[in-house]
Amino acid sequence: MCLAVPVRLISIEGSVGKVELSGTVMEVGLQLLEEAAIGDYVLVHAGFAIQKVDQREAEETLRFLNEVFDVMGKRDEVR
Amino acid sequence: MRFVDEYRRARPVKRLEREIRRAADRLGRKVRFMEICGGHTTAIHRFGIPSLLPDQIELLSGPGCPVCVTPTTYIDRALSLACDASCTLTTFGDLYRVPGSDGALEDASARGADVRVVYSPRDALKFALSDPQKVVTFLAVGFETTAPAVAATVLEASAQGIENFRIMSGHKTMPRALRALVEAPQVALDGFILPGHVSTIIGPEPYGFLPQEFGMACCVSGFEPTDILRSILALTLQVVKREFCVQNEYRRAVRKEGNAVAREQMSRVFEPCDSQWRGLGLIPNSGLDVKSEWRAYSVDPPDPTLPSEKHEDCRCEQLLRGLARPTDCPLFGTVCTPDSAVGPCMVSSEGSCAAFYKYGAGGIES
Q1: Cβ atoms within 10 Å, residue A21
Q2: What global pTM score does this model have?
Protein backbone atom coordinates (compact mmCIF):
# COMPACT_ATOMS: atom_id res chain seq x y z
CA MET A 1 0.00 0.00 0.00
CA CYS A 2 2.66 2.52 0.97
CA LEU A 3 5.20 1.29 -1.53
CA ALA A 4 6.78 3.78 -3.87
CA VAL A 5 9.30 3.29 -6.65
CA PRO A 6 11.95 5.68 -8.04
CA VAL A 7 11.10 6.86 -11.55
CA ARG A 8 12.52 9.54 -13.86
CA LEU A 9 10.54 12.66 -14.76
CA ILE A 10 10.46 13.04 -18.54
CA SER A 11 8.14 16.05 -18.85
CA ILE A 12 6.43 18.65 -16.71
CA GLU A 13 3.30 20.69 -17.42
CA GLY A 14 2.14 22.85 -14.52
CA SER A 15 1.64 20.57 -11.52
CA VAL A 16 1.54 17.40 -13.61
CA GLY A 17 4.60 15.44 -14.61
CA LYS A 18 5.12 12.40 -16.77
CA VAL A 19 7.34 9.58 -15.58
CA GLU A 20 8.68 6.55 -17.33
CA LEU A 21 9.33 3.09 -15.91
CA SER A 22 9.99 -0.05 -17.94
CA GLY A 23 8.71 1.71 -21.05
CA THR A 24 5.40 2.69 -19.46
CA VAL A 25 4.62 6.40 -19.25
CA MET A 26 2.25 7.71 -16.60
CA GLU A 27 1.08 11.01 -15.15
CA VAL A 28 1.97 12.02 -11.61
CA GLY A 29 0.98 15.01 -9.47
CA LEU A 30 3.92 17.21 -8.48
CA GLN A 31 2.07 19.26 -5.82
CA LEU A 32 3.89 17.55 -2.95
CA LEU A 33 7.38 18.56 -4.09
CA GLU A 34 9.03 21.90 -3.48
CA GLU A 35 10.54 21.83 -6.94
CA ALA A 36 11.07 19.31 -9.69
CA ALA A 37 12.95 19.34 -12.97
CA ILE A 38 12.95 17.08 -16.00
CA GLY A 39 15.47 14.30 -15.44
CA ASP A 40 14.93 14.18 -11.65
CA TYR A 41 14.29 10.82 -10.09
CA VAL A 42 11.20 10.90 -7.89
CA LEU A 43 9.47 8.41 -5.60
CA VAL A 44 5.89 7.90 -6.75
CA HIS A 45 3.05 6.81 -4.49
CA ALA A 46 -0.67 6.79 -5.36
CA GLY A 47 -0.09 8.95 -8.41
CA PHE A 48 1.94 11.64 -6.68
CA ALA A 49 5.68 12.24 -6.47
CA ILE A 50 6.39 12.24 -2.73
CA GLN A 51 10.15 12.87 -2.73
CA LYS A 52 13.09 13.52 -5.00
CA VAL A 53 15.71 10.80 -4.87
CA ASP A 54 19.40 11.26 -5.38
CA GLN A 55 20.15 10.17 -8.98
CA ARG A 56 23.12 7.99 -8.03
CA GLU A 57 21.10 6.29 -5.30
CA ALA A 58 18.11 5.76 -7.61
CA GLU A 59 20.27 4.23 -10.32
CA GLU A 60 21.90 2.02 -7.71
CA THR A 61 18.46 0.85 -6.53
CA LEU A 62 17.33 0.05 -10.04
CA ARG A 63 20.64 -1.70 -10.79
CA PHE A 64 20.27 -3.69 -7.59
CA LEU A 65 16.71 -4.70 -8.45
CA ASN A 66 17.88 -5.81 -11.87
CA GLU A 67 20.62 -7.83 -10.22
CA VAL A 68 18.08 -9.50 -7.94
CA PHE A 69 15.79 -10.28 -10.86
CA ASP A 70 18.79 -11.61 -12.72
CA VAL A 71 19.65 -13.92 -9.84
CA MET A 72 16.03 -15.02 -9.83
CA GLY A 73 16.36 -15.86 -13.50
CA LYS A 74 13.87 -13.23 -14.52
CA ARG A 75 14.90 -11.54 -17.74
CA ASP A 76 12.67 -8.47 -17.67
CA GLU A 77 14.59 -5.40 -16.66
CA VAL A 78 13.19 -2.90 -14.20
CA ARG A 79 13.90 -0.01 -16.53
CA MET B 1 12.02 -22.35 -1.80
CA ARG B 2 13.96 -22.17 -5.02
CA PHE B 3 13.71 -18.41 -5.26
CA VAL B 4 15.13 -17.82 -1.80
CA ASP B 5 17.99 -20.26 -2.30
CA GLU B 6 19.02 -18.47 -5.46
CA TYR B 7 18.64 -15.10 -3.92
CA ARG B 8 20.85 -16.03 -0.98
CA ARG B 9 23.82 -16.27 -3.30
CA ALA B 10 23.80 -12.52 -3.73
CA ARG B 11 27.02 -11.35 -2.10
CA PRO B 12 25.80 -8.35 -0.08
CA VAL B 13 23.11 -10.50 1.51
CA LYS B 14 25.66 -13.12 2.55
CA ARG B 15 27.87 -10.45 4.07
CA LEU B 16 25.02 -8.88 6.04
CA GLU B 17 23.85 -12.29 7.21
CA ARG B 18 27.35 -12.95 8.64
CA GLU B 19 27.50 -9.56 10.35
CA ILE B 20 24.05 -10.05 11.90
CA ARG B 21 25.11 -13.45 13.28
CA ARG B 22 28.27 -11.95 14.73
CA ALA B 23 26.27 -9.16 16.42
CA ALA B 24 23.60 -11.60 17.64
CA ASP B 25 26.27 -13.70 19.38
CA ARG B 26 26.87 -10.72 21.64
CA LEU B 27 23.17 -10.35 22.57
CA GLY B 28 23.12 -13.04 25.22
CA ARG B 29 19.34 -13.37 24.88
CA LYS B 30 16.52 -13.47 22.35
CA VAL B 31 15.26 -10.22 20.87
CA ARG B 32 12.02 -9.39 19.07
CA PHE B 33 11.83 -6.70 16.42
CA MET B 34 8.54 -5.53 14.95
CA GLU B 35 8.01 -4.09 11.50
CA ILE B 36 5.04 -1.81 11.06
CA CYS B 37 4.72 -1.42 7.33
CA GLY B 38 2.78 -3.66 4.95
CA GLY B 39 5.54 -3.29 2.36
CA HIS B 40 8.10 -4.57 4.87
CA THR B 41 5.81 -7.47 5.86
CA THR B 42 5.56 -8.57 2.25
CA ALA B 43 9.26 -8.09 1.51
CA ILE B 44 10.35 -9.95 4.65
CA HIS B 45 8.23 -12.99 3.83
CA ARG B 46 8.77 -12.86 0.10
CA PHE B 47 12.55 -12.86 0.43
CA GLY B 48 12.49 -15.41 3.27
CA ILE B 49 14.41 -13.05 5.54
CA PRO B 50 13.46 -14.84 8.82
CA SER B 51 15.27 -17.95 7.51
CA LEU B 52 18.47 -15.92 7.15
CA LEU B 53 18.42 -14.80 10.79
CA PRO B 54 19.99 -16.48 13.81
CA ASP B 55 17.72 -18.01 16.48
CA GLN B 56 18.23 -15.03 18.79
CA ILE B 57 16.34 -12.67 16.46
CA GLU B 58 12.61 -12.96 15.91
CA LEU B 59 10.64 -10.72 13.55
CA LEU B 60 7.03 -9.75 14.20
CA SER B 61 4.49 -7.83 12.16
CA GLY B 62 2.66 -4.91 13.72
CA PRO B 63 -0.26 -2.78 12.54
CA GLY B 64 1.51 -1.58 9.40
CA CYS B 65 -1.08 -2.34 6.76
CA PRO B 66 -3.64 0.49 6.60
CA VAL B 67 -6.22 -1.67 4.87
CA CYS B 68 -5.93 -4.35 7.57
CA VAL B 69 -6.57 -1.87 10.39
CA THR B 70 -9.56 -0.22 8.69
CA PRO B 71 -12.59 -1.15 10.84
CA THR B 72 -15.57 -3.08 9.51
CA THR B 73 -17.72 -0.02 10.29
CA TYR B 74 -15.85 1.92 7.57
CA ILE B 75 -16.46 -0.82 4.99
CA ASP B 76 -20.13 -0.96 6.06
CA ARG B 77 -20.49 2.81 5.55
CA ALA B 78 -18.87 2.48 2.12
CA LEU B 79 -21.31 -0.31 1.24
CA SER B 80 -24.28 1.84 2.22
CA LEU B 81 -22.94 4.67 0.01
CA ALA B 82 -22.62 2.18 -2.85
CA CYS B 83 -26.39 1.50 -2.67
CA ASP B 84 -27.11 5.04 -3.85
CA ALA B 85 -27.50 5.03 -7.64
CA SER B 86 -26.13 8.57 -7.92
CA CYS B 87 -22.87 7.53 -6.26
CA THR B 88 -19.68 6.30 -7.84
CA LEU B 89 -17.36 4.78 -5.26
CA THR B 90 -13.65 4.78 -6.01
CA THR B 91 -11.14 2.78 -4.02
CA PHE B 92 -7.61 1.46 -3.96
CA GLY B 93 -7.57 -2.14 -5.14
CA ASP B 94 -6.52 -3.64 -1.82
CA LEU B 95 -9.70 -2.41 -0.09
CA TYR B 96 -11.97 -3.90 -2.74
CA ARG B 97 -12.13 -7.41 -1.28
CA VAL B 98 -11.97 -6.53 2.41
CA PRO B 99 -15.07 -7.86 4.17
CA GLY B 100 -17.25 -5.60 6.29
CA SER B 101 -19.91 -7.07 8.55
CA ASP B 102 -21.98 -8.02 5.50
CA GLY B 103 -19.83 -8.56 2.44
CA ALA B 104 -17.17 -6.57 0.62
CA LEU B 105 -17.15 -3.84 -2.03
CA GLU B 106 -16.64 -6.49 -4.70
CA ASP B 107 -19.97 -8.04 -3.65
CA ALA B 108 -21.70 -4.67 -3.97
CA SER B 109 -20.14 -4.30 -7.39
CA ALA B 110 -21.41 -7.73 -8.39
CA ARG B 111 -24.91 -6.58 -7.36
CA GLY B 112 -24.60 -3.64 -9.75
CA ALA B 113 -23.19 -0.84 -7.59
CA ASP B 114 -20.80 1.55 -9.33
CA VAL B 115 -17.50 0.72 -7.58
CA ARG B 116 -14.28 1.46 -9.41
CA VAL B 117 -10.73 0.54 -8.47
CA VAL B 118 -8.25 3.37 -8.99
CA TYR B 119 -4.50 3.65 -8.62
CA SER B 120 -4.63 7.26 -7.47
CA PRO B 121 -7.12 9.77 -6.02
CA ARG B 122 -6.26 11.79 -9.15
CA ASP B 123 -8.11 9.12 -11.17
CA ALA B 124 -11.16 9.50 -8.91
CA LEU B 125 -11.12 13.25 -9.53
CA LYS B 126 -10.99 12.61 -13.29
CA PHE B 127 -14.13 10.45 -13.01
CA ALA B 128 -15.85 13.31 -11.17
CA LEU B 129 -14.86 15.77 -13.89
CA SER B 130 -16.06 13.52 -16.69
CA ASP B 131 -19.40 12.60 -15.07
CA PRO B 132 -20.92 15.65 -13.32
CA GLN B 133 -24.24 13.82 -12.75
CA LYS B 134 -22.58 11.44 -10.31
CA VAL B 135 -21.14 12.10 -6.88
CA VAL B 136 -17.72 10.46 -6.94
CA THR B 137 -16.52 9.40 -3.49
CA PHE B 138 -12.96 8.27 -2.91
CA LEU B 139 -12.35 5.89 -0.02
CA ALA B 140 -9.37 7.62 1.56
CA VAL B 141 -7.50 4.92 3.45
CA GLY B 142 -3.80 5.03 4.24
CA PHE B 143 -1.14 6.40 6.57
CA GLU B 144 0.94 9.56 6.23
CA THR B 145 2.28 8.33 2.88
CA THR B 146 -1.15 8.50 1.27
CA ALA B 147 -2.89 11.32 3.15
CA PRO B 148 -0.88 14.11 1.43
CA ALA B 149 -1.85 12.73 -2.01
CA VAL B 150 -5.52 12.79 -0.98
CA ALA B 151 -5.15 16.29 0.49
CA ALA B 152 -3.57 17.55 -2.74
CA THR B 153 -6.51 16.04 -4.67
CA VAL B 154 -9.08 17.81 -2.47
CA LEU B 155 -7.22 21.09 -2.97
CA GLU B 156 -7.14 20.42 -6.73
CA ALA B 157 -10.90 19.72 -6.76
CA SER B 158 -11.47 23.03 -5.01
CA ALA B 159 -9.12 24.92 -7.34
CA GLN B 160 -10.86 23.47 -10.41
CA GLY B 161 -14.35 24.00 -8.98
CA ILE B 162 -15.22 20.29 -9.21
CA GLU B 163 -18.20 20.03 -6.85
CA ASN B 164 -19.16 16.36 -7.22
CA PHE B 165 -15.97 14.97 -5.65
CA ARG B 166 -15.91 13.66 -2.07
CA ILE B 167 -13.59 11.71 0.15
CA MET B 168 -14.42 9.57 3.15
CA SER B 169 -11.39 9.82 5.40
CA GLY B 170 -10.26 6.62 7.05
CA HIS B 171 -6.70 7.95 7.28
CA LYS B 172 -4.56 6.95 10.24
CA THR B 173 -1.24 8.18 11.58
CA MET B 174 1.61 6.04 12.79
CA PRO B 175 3.36 7.61 15.82
CA ARG B 176 0.24 7.63 18.07
CA ALA B 177 -0.45 3.99 17.26
CA LEU B 178 3.14 3.10 18.17
CA ARG B 179 2.76 4.91 21.47
CA ALA B 180 -0.42 2.91 22.16
CA LEU B 181 1.48 -0.30 21.37
CA VAL B 182 4.41 0.36 23.71
CA GLU B 183 2.19 1.77 26.49
CA ALA B 184 0.06 -1.39 26.53
CA PRO B 185 0.39 -3.52 29.68
CA GLN B 186 2.01 -6.42 27.87
CA VAL B 187 4.90 -5.45 25.61
CA ALA B 188 7.39 -8.03 24.42
CA LEU B 189 9.42 -5.97 21.98
CA ASP B 190 13.01 -4.79 21.74
CA GLY B 191 12.79 -2.59 18.70
CA PHE B 192 11.02 -1.42 15.56
CA ILE B 193 11.82 -1.57 11.87
CA LEU B 194 10.19 1.77 11.07
CA PRO B 195 8.16 2.33 7.90
CA GLY B 196 9.99 3.68 4.86
CA HIS B 197 7.56 5.87 3.00
CA VAL B 198 5.56 7.07 6.00
CA SER B 199 8.97 8.35 7.16
CA THR B 200 9.59 9.97 3.76
CA ILE B 201 6.76 12.32 4.74
CA ILE B 202 7.15 12.70 8.52
CA GLY B 203 10.94 12.20 8.86
CA PRO B 204 12.57 10.15 11.67
CA GLU B 205 11.99 12.70 14.46
CA PRO B 206 8.36 11.83 15.46
CA TYR B 207 9.54 8.36 16.58
CA GLY B 208 12.06 9.87 19.05
CA PHE B 209 9.91 8.93 22.07
CA LEU B 210 10.42 5.22 21.36
CA PRO B 211 14.15 5.10 22.21
CA GLN B 212 13.98 7.99 24.69
CA GLU B 213 10.98 6.98 26.81
CA PHE B 214 10.76 3.26 26.14
CA GLY B 215 14.32 2.10 25.38
CA MET B 216 13.31 0.72 21.98
CA ALA B 217 15.86 0.22 19.23
CA CYS B 218 14.59 1.95 16.07
CA CYS B 219 15.62 1.99 12.45
CA VAL B 220 13.89 3.47 9.40
CA SER B 221 14.21 0.92 6.62
CA GLY B 222 13.93 0.65 2.85
CA PHE B 223 12.31 -2.25 1.07
CA GLU B 224 15.05 -4.18 -0.67
CA PRO B 225 16.33 -7.29 1.15
CA THR B 226 19.68 -5.64 1.88
CA ASP B 227 17.85 -2.56 3.26
CA ILE B 228 15.92 -4.75 5.67
CA LEU B 229 18.96 -6.80 6.69
CA ARG B 230 20.97 -3.61 7.25
CA SER B 231 18.19 -2.33 9.50
CA ILE B 232 18.09 -5.59 11.46
CA LEU B 233 21.86 -5.32 11.94
CA ALA B 234 21.46 -1.72 13.15
CA LEU B 235 18.75 -2.73 15.64
CA THR B 236 20.81 -5.67 16.94
CA LEU B 237 23.85 -3.43 17.48
CA GLN B 238 21.69 -0.86 19.32
CA VAL B 239 20.54 -3.59 21.72
CA VAL B 240 24.09 -4.97 22.12
CA LYS B 241 25.48 -1.52 22.95
CA ARG B 242 22.37 -0.44 24.87
CA GLU B 243 22.46 2.81 22.90
CA PHE B 244 18.98 3.43 21.55
CA CYS B 245 18.13 5.97 18.87
CA VAL B 246 16.14 6.39 15.65
CA GLN B 247 18.64 5.34 13.01
CA ASN B 248 17.90 6.11 9.37
CA GLU B 249 19.03 3.38 6.97
CA TYR B 250 16.80 4.65 4.16
CA ARG B 251 18.49 7.97 3.56
CA ARG B 252 17.92 7.92 -0.19
CA ALA B 253 14.19 8.45 0.42
CA VAL B 254 13.96 9.73 4.00
CA ARG B 255 15.41 13.11 4.87
CA LYS B 256 15.88 14.40 8.37
CA GLU B 257 13.11 16.97 7.86
CA GLY B 258 10.79 14.59 5.96
CA ASN B 259 8.69 16.26 3.24
CA ALA B 260 7.47 19.61 4.63
CA VAL B 261 5.45 20.49 1.50
CA ALA B 262 3.49 17.25 1.77
CA ARG B 263 2.88 17.78 5.49
CA GLU B 264 1.70 21.34 4.83
CA GLN B 265 -0.90 20.11 2.29
CA MET B 266 -1.97 17.38 4.69
CA SER B 267 -2.48 19.84 7.56
CA ARG B 268 -4.40 22.28 5.32
CA VAL B 269 -7.04 19.65 4.67
CA PHE B 270 -6.91 17.34 7.71
CA GLU B 271 -6.79 17.61 11.48
CA PRO B 272 -6.10 14.88 14.06
CA CYS B 273 -9.04 12.87 15.40
CA ASP B 274 -9.60 9.70 17.41
CA SER B 275 -9.57 6.61 15.27
CA GLN B 276 -10.81 3.04 15.49
CA TRP B 277 -8.19 0.44 14.47
CA ARG B 278 -9.38 -3.00 13.45
CA GLY B 279 -7.63 -5.34 15.88
CA LEU B 280 -6.39 -2.59 18.23
CA GLY B 281 -9.49 -0.57 19.11
CA LEU B 282 -9.88 3.16 19.64
CA ILE B 283 -6.60 5.11 19.69
CA PRO B 284 -6.85 8.83 20.59
CA ASN B 285 -5.62 11.28 17.96
CA SER B 286 -4.43 8.54 15.62
CA GLY B 287 -6.67 9.46 12.70
CA LEU B 288 -7.21 12.32 10.27
CA ASP B 289 -10.52 14.11 9.91
CA VAL B 290 -11.38 16.60 7.13
CA LYS B 291 -11.27 20.19 8.45
CA SER B 292 -14.58 22.02 8.52
CA GLU B 293 -13.63 24.39 5.67
CA TRP B 294 -13.41 21.37 3.31
CA ARG B 295 -16.62 19.66 4.52
CA ALA B 296 -18.19 20.09 1.08
CA TYR B 297 -15.65 17.53 -0.16
CA SER B 298 -16.21 15.08 2.65
CA VAL B 299 -18.54 12.23 3.52
CA ASP B 300 -18.59 11.67 7.27
CA PRO B 301 -16.88 8.41 8.24
CA PRO B 302 -18.54 6.24 10.91
CA ASP B 303 -18.28 7.18 14.59
CA PRO B 304 -14.75 6.13 15.63
CA THR B 305 -15.97 4.91 19.02
CA LEU B 306 -17.98 2.13 17.34
CA PRO B 307 -15.97 -1.10 17.57
CA SER B 308 -14.98 -3.14 14.56
CA GLU B 309 -16.68 -6.52 14.36
CA LYS B 310 -14.50 -9.48 15.22
CA HIS B 311 -14.58 -13.24 15.36
CA GLU B 312 -14.22 -14.51 18.92
CA ASP B 313 -11.37 -16.91 18.04
CA CYS B 314 -9.40 -14.41 15.96
CA ARG B 315 -5.92 -13.70 17.38
CA CYS B 316 -5.13 -10.68 15.23
CA GLU B 317 -5.22 -8.31 18.17
CA GLN B 318 -2.47 -10.24 19.98
CA LEU B 319 -0.62 -10.61 16.69
CA LEU B 320 -0.68 -6.87 15.95
CA ARG B 321 0.71 -6.26 19.45
CA GLY B 322 3.52 -8.76 18.95
CA LEU B 323 2.06 -11.27 21.43
CA ALA B 324 1.16 -14.05 18.97
CA ARG B 325 2.16 -15.47 15.61
CA PRO B 326 -0.18 -16.38 12.74
CA THR B 327 0.15 -20.09 13.52
CA ASP B 328 -1.01 -19.49 17.12
CA CYS B 329 -4.48 -18.69 15.74
CA PRO B 330 -6.96 -21.58 15.52
CA LEU B 331 -8.54 -19.99 12.44
CA PHE B 332 -5.29 -19.50 10.47
CA GLY B 333 -5.19 -21.39 7.20
CA THR B 334 -8.44 -23.24 7.85
CA VAL B 335 -11.37 -20.95 8.53
CA CYS B 336 -9.34 -17.82 7.76
CA THR B 337 -7.58 -17.75 4.37
CA PRO B 338 -6.88 -14.98 1.83
CA ASP B 339 -9.99 -16.08 -0.13
CA SER B 340 -12.17 -16.01 2.94
CA ALA B 341 -10.51 -13.67 5.42
CA VAL B 342 -11.81 -13.40 8.96
CA GLY B 343 -9.24 -11.24 10.73
CA PRO B 344 -7.54 -7.97 9.80
CA CYS B 345 -4.13 -9.57 9.21
CA MET B 346 -5.54 -11.78 6.45
CA VAL B 347 -7.76 -9.25 4.66
CA SER B 348 -5.08 -7.55 2.58
CA SER B 349 -2.14 -9.12 0.75
CA GLU B 350 0.11 -6.90 2.89
CA GLY B 351 -1.26 -8.31 6.15
CA SER B 352 1.07 -10.53 8.14
CA CYS B 353 -1.20 -13.60 8.08
CA ALA B 354 -1.74 -13.22 4.32
CA ALA B 355 2.02 -12.91 3.71
CA PHE B 356 2.70 -15.85 6.02
CA TYR B 357 0.00 -17.89 4.25
CA LYS B 358 1.39 -17.09 0.82
CA TYR B 359 5.12 -17.42 1.38
CA GLY B 360 5.20 -19.99 4.16
CA ALA B 361 6.90 -19.98 7.52
CA GLY B 362 10.20 -18.81 6.08
CA GLY B 363 12.03 -19.62 9.30
CA ILE B 364 9.50 -18.26 11.77
CA GLU B 365 8.98 -21.02 14.27
CA SER B 366 5.46 -22.15 14.83
Answers
A1: 15
A2: 0.90
